[in-house]
Amino acid sequence: MDGIGLAAYDADVESVTGPTAGAAERSLAADRSAGARASALLRLRGAAALGRLFVEPAATLDKAPRPAVVTPDAEPYYAGNGPTAVLLCHGFTGSPRSLRRWATHLEADGYRVSLPRLPGHGTTWEELNSTEWTDWYAAVEREFIRLRNECDTVFVAGLSMGGCLALRLAEQFGADVAGITVVNPAVMISDRRMLALPLLRRVLPSLEGIASDIAMPHIVEGGYDRTPLHALHSMVKMWHDVRANLHRIDQPLLLYRSEQDHVVDPSSARAILASVSSTDVREVVLTRSYHVATMDYDAEEIFTGSSAFFRRLLTV
Predict the structure, then answer these.
(1) In Å, what is the CA distance from 169 to each residue of 42, 132, 196?
(2) Which residue of 103, 131, 209, 312 sits 20 to 30 Å from the alpha carbon of 231, by its own alpha carbon?
(3) For residue 269, what are the CA distances in angstroms to 169, 188, 257, 309?
(4) pLDDT single digits (tens) 149-170
(5) What is the β-pairing status of strands 226-228 and 180-183?
(6) CB under 8 Å to 129, separation ≥6 — which residues?
């Protein structure tokens, strides 16, 4: 691997693990032998599973893109006409479906709500694999600017990657964001197998999906059954960008975190709470729900709690 490739690999390692990575992680980046690096990656916990991934059927590699038709339950949702708006951001490989009930609850409470569909979502994982994090952020940024121009007050909220997008809006727009609510937000992950992503994405287009991590039986998120790796790699870059600017956030923050989350581990919540400059911060631990908590047992607690949080901020 040439010098440029090595530099890119080092940057990828830091963007996944953070600048304070331990010796095991940094030793992988320091190893300049491609053969030794691959061997080291395979020695990581979960090596057997990783080995199986490298021999996925060739049909997965050669699958032709399907037409990008938006599924009916993945359409964006816009409602209400009041002076106070909430911009809701859905998660990676998901769609507005996962936040639709949250949006309708806020609408019933008198808020204007905007729940856009992010580029590459609600269609096919192949289309998502052709997009970048800047495309997803541009979509929510455009919607935020529209709401800011039309409303007196704008709050932002999001689930998982949508929480990361909401945090970036707060970083970039400062006091124009009146408050933030995030549910199981993702800004990093401590799973060391992610270190293989920069190489793995050049071999495979996708892996098994992460959708529908829900404790309540018979509830389906409607996300993709595959995780597109180029898009995932781009999301890791967004994590790095957002983590580097968390100190710029000083708006009131309400963070919901599931005690059992099989998609996002607690490192993200810890990083956010330790880095923001907000003085009005509350963390709520959800004991009955998994990752997609907005469709799970604790959904109503999120809906009523966030509505009350926004209402309180309006009276300050």
Answers:
(1) 38, 17, 30
(2) 103
(3) 17, 9, 7, 19
(4) 999 999 999 999 999 999 999 9
(5) unpaired
(6) 120, 205, 206, 228, 229, 230, 231
Q: What are the pLDDT digits (tens) for 180-233?
A: 999 999 999 888 878 888 888 888 898 888 888 899 999 988 889 899 999 999
pLDDT in tens, 63-116: 445 557 888 889 999 999 999 999 999 999 999 999 999 999 999 999 999 999
Q: How far apart are CA 102 and CA 256, in angstroms?
A: 14
Q: What is the rounded distance in angstroms from the CA atom of residue 177 to the CA atom of residue 83?
A: 14
All structural domains of the chain: 3-66+193-207 (no CATH), 73-190+214-228+237-314 (3.40.50.1820)
Handedness of CA 250, 251, 254, 259 (dihedral sign): negative
C-alpha span between 68 and 81 (Å, rounded): 31
- For the chain, the C-alpha Rg in angstroms (whole number) is 20
Q: How would DSSP label each residue in 252-308?
A: -EEEEEESS-SSS-THHHHHHHHH---SSEEEEEESS--S-GGGSTTHHHHHHHHHH
The distance from CA 197 to its chain's CA centroid, rounded to whole angstroms, is 17
47-52 contacts, C-beta under 8 A, 24 or more apart: 49/193, 50/193, 50/196, 50/200
CB of 159 closer than 8 Å to CB of 183: yes
Reported pTM: 0.79
Least confident stretch, 23-32, 144-153, 189-198, 261-270: 23-32
